[in-house]
Amino acid sequence: MSAEHWAGQQERGSFLLMKFTALAVRRLGRRALAPLLYLIVLYFFLFGAKARRSIWTYQRHLAAWSGRDPLQPTWRSVFRQFMAFADALLDKLDIWHGQLRLADISLVDPHDLRGQLRGPRGQLLVGAHLGNLEVCRALAELGERVRMNVLVHTKHAERFNRLLGEVGASHLRLIQVSELDPAIMLQLSERLERGEWLAIAGDRVPLHGGRNVTVDFLGRPAAFPQGPWLLAGLLGCPLNLLSCLKIDGRYRVILEPFAERVQWKRGERDAVIRAWVQRYAERLGQRCLEAPEQWFNFYPFWNAHDDPSA
């Protein structure tokens, strides 16, 4: 029997969980909700064998790839990674309710990408499930008030948008992009021309076997989506990387330009995209070393999870 894809695992409960936590934090506050969330995460640590194995594998690969023996997995280090996830969930609640201020964020932006947020044409931001991507909202809502469109694979994008509106996220919108069909491409192009920005995760392949490419990540072959690089090439926009890591109790948002243009000649597209994805995987590995226990992909990342025979 094939392993269930990551999106299938999360689709069933993610919207209800967001709805519950948004209501609970509004009524009870973070301090009252924290013990409950920690208990929930402890439950998944104790009974989520697949998630534990996945994190153990990640930590083992990271240690071997980097040559840093202290990063070798132990039960304590795996448990700390689960607890880091619980802490990130609590931070998300603060962000949804406006408790995170720009003053609480250290912005590392040597090329002044923030200054380009209000430019005449939007650009593409690629993040990963490392650290807390929800901090994107701080850029969209608290910074330059720029419209940020987060491209997702969930079927519940419209319901999530209503929930975001309920908690005041007026400048953040989710757009379902299961397939890059002409209608979606036209919509995204129009949004870029209006000065809106697009954000997408670069570390999870789509649910229905969308375009992906296998490259080396932490010394092992892993599947990454082609979507961000296809979008950058087809839309003719710069592609930048966004990282949101919690270092010493404070979020560090790192903005860095990555590809001014992604372009290819006829017959070269697959090779060009593979090269860019490999560069991205190497950069992601370096970021993992900055916050080793903030990798929040709790599924077999190095499996061919879209292959029914896997």
Give the neighbour order of strands across the main sheet: 1-9-8-2-5-3-4
What's the SSE pattern? HHHHEEHEHEHEEEHEEH
Proportion of helical residues? 40-55%
Major sheet description: 7 strands, mixed
Question: How are the elements arranged and paired?
Answer:
Blueprint (H helix, E strand, L loop, with lengths): L5 H23 L1 H18 L1 H18 L8 H22 L8 E4 L15 E4 L8 H8 L4 E5 L4 H10 L5 E5 L5 H12 L3 E5 L10 E6 L2 E6 L1 H9 L3 E9 L2 E10 L9 H22 L20
Parallel strand pairs: 1-9, 2-5, 2-8, 3-4, 3-5
Antiparallel strand pairs: 6-7, 8-9
Helix pairs in contact: 1-2, 2-4, 3-4
Provide an overview of this structure.
The chain contains 9 helices and 9 strands. By secondary structure, it is of the alpha/beta class. The strands form 2 sheets. It has a 7-stranded mixed beta sheet with strand order 1-9-8-2-5-3-4. α6 links the parallel β3 and β4.
